[in-house]
């Protein structure tokens, strides 16, 4: 009893310690490694952390399989870019409108999806993102600029270092909010819906309300990531609404651990660094990337977050030693 | 006040394509009653529960609970006004521990102002009520079938119901488990909760119920005390077939 309690305390402290070490390291990186390229990769990592964590709230926590998460990211990014460049909105207003557009999309997609379960939901979310991709890549080129994209978006701060810190703060705040929600009463209710929707209803849960809440949270934070991306990159192309981007929300989360918020965040961070950081490997990196995913699905389906339990289980019951 | 029936079901029907699963069913339940519903497989018992709890919309007919028309009400709103259920095919939150399963209901009950205390303490009380306290930290997926049945009841109880609908709680239990669960259900009824029990295993149902309704092909074919129902010609026919009737009457 005592030993169990003690080790869980030290574990908590270890987690806290890990977070602290990360925060300190993350804050001094720009001073220690003044490489624009490395900072660029890390800024993208911060953006995708928000993106992956926001996907997890809807799919990992609430069990509503969303195969088209890029639609929230992409719509918001395009809205920021278009309102800022063509309508000359002040950037802050563009960002507000961009995130709001993701919010509206979460209602437009979420409301019909409330009645859908399983594969029907998956197909519907996929279709919505596919429609957005078609609009951006062909039907509405006059607005989206097609392959060329929308160029000349203004930016809040100029340069890699300020953008690095801005994205770091945005990431920390976003993940903290999502994490707090996931570990609150609301998070428990969302998980119950994932476990069994009928049983959740029988417990008195208004499943419609909570599923819509999950859609909105997921859409809004996906939109926040997209809006930041637009102002940082200063150009928005069809890349932001591709199938690949939707798929990466899933792979990030799979690697990190679905249904944990922190897991998908860690997965996004690591994979973005690997993928962007090893671009010199050219096409091999896609091969390696996919091999990593297959390896995880086969050997660690719970993702990195399940690593500790997995090691514990393999050592037998004596998992507490050395603590 | 007192002439308003507790539960009033009027001409309730549910058709699945051509099939009349529930066919013009009318009955009343008084507050504090213990009503058994029996009938052969496919008689429409579960469908009737789904209609009363709002999981299905009726083709026609109306349902009143304490004088209020609840026919169009959502399942979670019916829980809020005091109607709880269990499922014939159990639906535990598998990755939750036993106590977390119950905490979910308790949490909602607290949000509805039905309990004052901390939901975990209340959930623990409910687990004790169904003799599952020792299993509180066991994942639902690791519980044996008999205990999952009890967990379902605990989860329904934690919503603080006035009317509790139990769909075949004894199915798949051993003789010993049936007896212990029978005691649990009896004590729930003694706490003042109105119970409607669907049961395929007649013995337990006969022992617990004050009144029994017999369904066959979606219709009520008998309604009375367990003794009356047992003697009913149509009931024997439904259960044993015509040959059984000939056999029973010698
Ligand atoms: N969702 C459904 N769709 C179509 N038919 C159904 C559905 N639910 C039940 N039925 C049919 O309605 C009839 C009554 O079923 P049910 O209420 O489950 O009976 P019981 O619980 O008395 O065994 C059966 O013939 C069953 O096949
Ligand atoms: Mg049934």
Folded structure, characterized:
The complex is a heterodimer of chains A (323) and B (250). Chain A contains 14 helices and two strands. Chain A is mainly alpha-helical and 323 residues long. A two-stranded antiparallel ribbon of chain A has the order 1-2. In chain A, helix 8 packs across helix 10. Chain A is globular, with a radius of gyration of 20 Å. Chain B is 39% helix and 24% strand. The model of chain B has no long low-confidence stretch (mean pLDDT 91). Chain B has a domain of 173 residues: P-loop containing nucleotide triphosphate hydrolases (Rossmann fold, 3-Layer(aba) Sandwich). The interface between A and B is medium-sized, with 18 and 29 residues. Magnesium ion binds next to helix 1 of chain B.
What descriptors fit this protein?
heterodimer, A: 323 residues, mainly alpha, two-stranded antiparallel sheet, 14 helices, 1% strand, disordered C terminus, B: 250 residues, alpha/beta, Rossmann fold, six-stranded mixed sheet, four-stranded antiparallel sheet, binds adenosine-5'-diphosphate, binds magnesium ion
Pair with the biggest interface: A-B, 18 and 29 residues
Helix content of chain A: over 70%
Please give the radius of gyration of chain A in angstroms: 20 Å
Distance between the termini of chain B: 50 Å
Envelope shape of chain B: globular
Q: Report the uncertain regions of chain A.
A: 318-323
Q: What is the strand arrangement across the widest sheet of chain A?
A: 1-2
Oligomer designation:
heterodimer
Give the end-to-end Cα distance of chain A, rounded to a whole number of Å: 14 Å
